Amino acid sequence: MDIKILGVGCPRCKKLEQQVRNVVAENNIMADIEKITDVQEMVQYGIMATPGLVINGKVKSSGLTLKDEQILNWIKEESGEIK
Amino acid sequence: MSGKSRIHGCYVLVLIPVWVLLYLYLGDLVNYLINDIINLESGARITETIRFFLYEVPKVMLLMTLIVFAVGIIRSYFSPEKTRKSLEGKPLFVGNILASVLGIFTPFCSCSAVPLFLGFVEAGIPLGVTFSFLIAAPMINEVAVILLFGLFGWKTAVIYISTGLVIAIIAGWVIGRLKLERFVESWVYEIKSGSSGLRDEKLNFEGRIEYGITAVKDIVSKVWVYVIIGIAVGAGVHGYVPENFMAGLMGKDVWWSVPLSVLIGIPLYSNAAGIIPVVQSLIEKGASLGTSLAFMMSVIGLSLPEMIILKKVLKLPLIFIFIGVVGTGIIIVGYLFNIIY
Does residue B53 contact residue B232 with C-beta atoms inside 8 Å? Predict the structure, then answer.
């Protein structure tokens, strides 16, 4: 599992990164979590509002404050646990 | 998720009458507290300062919660992606108008100004139209409008919104006509942007209420400190600065005060929540509306941190032209209102 958080350092981006780390740790999920601050990479994902959340190369959300359950749901979706 | 949202929906319905009662009786409540419970002497400076503070803080917070919630629901219908789509291929002037109006409703944070700028440019949206958006989005924000409405009344709020729109439209159009593409960093035109492929999820109404609640949490938790500091300074000015003291500095007849206010406003960085209560008390002490409006717009609309962020994609001459064009617009608005009022 490969999770990327895209943001240039706004408070909400830091919060999302922390949230993702917590969710992953609490649920014993094996995941590479990476914080991306490079704007060019953001644009390549087509993200125009930060924070962006990319799981396994797929953009899941941009510019939103998310709930833990929502993040966990997406992770499960990508790992094939739920369809 | 929907069960929980339904519960949230119920809370909101119960809270609305409570809100209305609180808002209507806030003045009486504060007077009762000050005159009868703490027993302060009416008319004394310290009493009036405390009264001002105790009344304005909850009033502004109440207004803020309600309007941020409502704007949050409206915003859930908009996104930068949709805005970009509706701006694609629009001719210059129409594009400027549309971009400025959409700037009010599209969720925007100045920290994502750069990815948004890139996203717009990649989609072929002209530079001038992009600028109309980047001027309107931070300047005409819900917090500014709430405070203006709460502290000055609806007329001033409408004046602020409409002059802000006019500045965004004209300034963007001027920047478009000047053909300044050469002052955009060249790598901007070389990168290829992808499409996020985000499914445009249709939110149901409960989802939108949820979105509104999140907006309230996000925004109120960010600006409440500024509101309190701003109102505290405002309360101090209200109680202690002599009547008409500001007339000599920011009055109508002091012609240089408008450009000076704009200049001072650029490096001053505060969001609307901090600056508007202060400006309100300045007006009370004789500052003119036009000069104060210019000061406010400059502080909110021309912020140094945003310029520094935009420096990543724009070369310095363009940043200065941007400041110059928007600043001139604000100065004109300032003089205009000093003449009208």
Answer: yes
